[in-house]
From TrEMBL:
The keyword Membrane applies. It comes from the Eukaryota. It comes from Periconia digitata. This is AB hydrolase-1 domain-containing protein. Residues 140-251 form the AB hydrolase-1 domain.
Amino acid sequence: MYLLGTHFLSRGPATPLHCTMSTFYNKVIIPICFASGIWIPAMLLCCIPWVQKQMLYLHWVTLWPGKWLTEPERAGFLKNQASTFRIPTKDGERLFGWLIAPLGIYSSNAQEFLRERASEGDIEDETSFRLLRNDPHARLLIYFHGNTATLAQGRRTEEYRAYASGASDKIFVLTFDYRGFGKSTGSPSEEGVLNDAEAVVDWALNTACISPERIVLLGHSLGTAVAAGITLQYANLPAPIHFSGLILCAAFTNSGNAFSAYSIGNVIPVLAPVNLIPALQVWFSKRMRDTWRTDQRLAALAKQCNTFRLTLVHAQDDGTMPWRQTEQLFASTLQAATSDAVPDVRTIDLGEAGKQEIWEEGGKSISKLIAKHGDHNTMMKWSPIALAVLESFGLTTVTSATPRA
């Protein structure tokens, strides 16, 4: 989420460089913001719904070639490895998406993929769809991207390959653009984007016929709010549906807190005074039209679900979204899950990769990995996320089997 965040006011264990940056922000940058008074007109400007929408979604910013949307091979995929198709929503929009076959599956069926004629037609005629639907052992990772650009952004295409790498004979990836992004029709809003997520998940369950225990939802930045929202929506059905796992990378508690963490160029925290004055933060948050209350949604899931697997990941050097947001989400979700009892949290020292904390009880698992490195985007291509995918699918038990630190 390019708009949101900075390093200032992060809490928890930190590196010497991180401590130096926090001191610099607290003692130099923030007082300058207070004294300049620039935060007052900036705050008022961000109370305008149209401005909020443009800054939150940045759907109008496309920095990568649009040709990659209909030509996945330009992003490094093999011929027909990524099938392009459309998913209709219940309110009349049409979403553009890719269904990506893992390399192991592709290599075992290479001749079928190579003979197939590429088209943006009926996905059910595609080899990738048939192999996904007909394999009872196949898994489906649904990817919810952050703001700005499209599903074909260069970094994101690298992520898709990384996530399937640990089980290249099983993990398919379904990625899509929200309304107003790329080739998807419409204009984004919280209600609309949740409709998009519902359409995609419904396609996975009822068109591809993948059972929920073989589906993992993974969100990055803005996508964490979308993934959390749709997970709660399905958990609230008369016949609740619970997925194999929910992975949230570089998440934020709600849009009001995200806006007040914004820094111009990741350097100048214009709205820092709002963040530092609780009453003002409450007032400002109430001005948000799209609230994206991930904190409340995760707490509800933790309370009401007997089966719930949540993995939170954030990097300490994230200059876009402060990692204290994930600290807060972990604390509030854990509190909801344990009904204020003292939780028995296991800590795993991952060395220079960071530290992971895990709470498990019955069918519930809530974990938080704070990485030392990886910033806002780079970590998405790294092994910890790929490992979290494998664990969420139940394909490995590395961290759950690791002894306490």
